[in-house]
Amino acid sequence: MSWTAKSTDIKNQLRNLNKVVPGMAKGFQALSKGVKEGGVLEFKHKEYVALGIAVTQKCEPCIVLHMEALVRVGASREEVGDVLAMAVQMGGGPAMMYAAKAMECFDELTAKAQAAA
């Protein structure tokens, strides 16, 4: 399955969950908005942190959602590579396997964005 298809599936799963527990969904959205809009770090840097955590926690849905955000804000392959290297340093071999998946995701989503432009 492609990363684009995974993204669609993940978003559909989240919509389904959010219908069942709308209060939780609204609370999580408020938390996300609060941490992404506030503070001294730029949004892009916060997404790099989220990507690193997603890799070390082995969360493919998180990887694709944060990678989409990074592609939208113009992250470079080299910047993503640095983030993935730090995730591997912190998470060892298992993180390296998910870092490889994350780079594949970046490449696919970047190619899709460039084709659409």
TrEMBL record:
Transmembrane spans: none
SUPFAM superfamilies (alphabetical): AhpD-like
GO molecular function, one term: peroxiredoxin activity
Sorted UniProt keywords: Oxidoreductase, Peroxidase
InterPro entries registered for this protein in UniProt: AhpD-like (IPR029032), AhpD_core (IPR004675), CMD-like (IPR003779)
Domain Carboxymuconolactone decarboxylase-like as annotated: residue spans: 22-104
Domain of life: Bacteria
Pfam families per UniProt: CMD
Presence of the UniProt keyword Oxidoreductase in the record: yes
NCBIfam families xref list: ahpD_dom
Protein name: Alkylhydroperoxidase
Organism of provenance: Actibacterium atlanticum
Taxonomic path: Bacteria, Pseudomonadati, Pseudomonadota, Alphaproteobacteria, Rhodobacterales
